[in-house]
């Protein structure tokens, strides 16, 4: 049964909580003159902070309206314990330590918080030690976990309820970032209507797969730009037939992992290709009935594989895609006509232009047969700041996050003095990462406004000023400084495509179930081998139907049932 606006009744409690938070955000924005989320146009000179775009001014006072609450500072000194992951190659200046460095000192000075680091480790060592600690219940006061661990701890009743903590202590800037996700980030950390963690926020631009095409080849052959898969096939054939990149021209590039759709776009994936069929192999999505299903077994995936099979047979898809580990090298060599990739693909284009000064790539979005762009989104949150159940001062975690966000965005004067060459891993609990969901789009608007004279470049924060200076230099001498060009390029044409209306698809389940732990490796092997064999012509397309039957029988149906049950309990 559905409630108002078609929301399932089982989710009403969760949505009600999130709605209350949104109401608080709107009230705060109204009180501050409506500057929240300003993209830097007009007269907002604070054009971009940290990695996401704009930052708030006058950001003091918590969400409760209490005059006594400072969301950035504990009234009395507080110490909490943690353990953390640290990259094996992470370095500190001489004299600094993991427990005593610029970030720990900043936190103590600004937030009145000291963190005792019980232990830290890298890679597999961290995984082993943290699993042992969590399994034994020997967890610290505050720490960062992945989604799987978050739900494990929540089910074991080991986490402090942070609902009231967020309502009282979340700073306006923090709320502004969450509002950019339509508060879906908060929902990801909400169980049975209660906020059980402080979730991170992923930049959704990283999920979009664009088709980068040799525009100079397209123009030379007088071809129309692509909109559909049929256009990709048409253009690839023209490129190959005319040997635009020589005898070994590759119409469409792909990597060895391209037959599984990633949530985060990667160069030489086929995410945008599959999306044009509304196909999302490797992901758990909702079908037309609203049921969660595995995308790899749906008819849309079969259809997409069939087209790739045709293109491969015709020599339009890279013949060596199944073993291609570094397809970038083929682009740089000037042999590739098209590849799918993210907005930040400027690096490979930089190297290509260095070798081929007359080359020109341009990004496009590919539409389905209904004329819409489909995109599988990143999980809005994949890291969670959690507090041990029973910790007496849980608000310290919220103050920590507020302070971290403000410092990262340079929204506090002394934060500008922090040495950004020192990895943020050295923040006491690490870097959970928080940003506007639409951070790239915000930055692109700031850059465009600055270049158009709508923003005084002297008012830009350092990061945006650097991008502006590179862009202005390129205006005077196009592509003379390719390294500088690559720094700002992603915020121009690619970022404009990010603003296009999209049918945004969610991966509904990104952790593991008990049966997955036992059977997923074999199921994935079955899938990978079948899909490659179909595309390369070693198996008929109808082998897909047998794959579906085998997948279901060998544990897929059991896993699907577990996932549906798990989702019902959230």
In words, what does this structure look like?
The chain has 570 residues and is an alpha/beta fold. It folds into 2 domains: 226 residues, D-Maltodextrin-Binding Protein, domain 2 (3-Layer(aba) Sandwich), CATH 3.40.190.10; 182 residues, D-Maltodextrin-Binding Protein, domain 2. Helix content is 41%, strand content 11%. The protein has 20 helices and 15 strands. The protein has a 4-stranded mixed sheet. It is globular. The N terminus is likely disordered.
Report strand order across the widest sheet.
8-11-7-12
> What is the name of the CATH architecture of the largest domain?
3-Layer(aba) Sandwich
What's the CATH H-level homologous superfamily of the largest domain? Periplasmic binding protein-like II
Topology, number of strands: 15
CATH C-level label of the largest domain: Alpha Beta
What does the radius of gyration come to?
25 Å
What is the count of DSSP helices, taking H or I runs of 4+ residues?
20
The structure class reads alpha/beta
Q: Mind describing the biggest β-sheet?
A: 4 strands, mixed
Quick tags:
single chain; 570 residues; alpha/beta; 2 domains; 15 strands; 41% helix; globular
Task: Describe the secondary-structure layout.
Blueprint: H1 12-31, E1 78-85, H2 102-111, E2 113-121, H3 123-136, E3 142-146, H4 147-155, H5 163-169, H6 172-179, H7 184-188, E4 190-191, E5 194-195, E6 198-199, E7 210-214, H8 215-220, H9 229-241, E8 250-252, H10 271-275, E9 284-286, E10 292-294, H11 299-313, H12 328-332, E11 336-341, H13 346-355, E12 361-364, E13 374-376, E14 383-387, H14 395-408, H15 439-451, H16 462-476, H17 482-489, H18 493-498, E15 503-505, H19 514-535, H20 543-568
Parallel strand pairs: 1-2, 8-11, 13-15
Antiparallel strand pairs: 3-14, 4-5, 6-14, 7-11, 7-12, 9-10
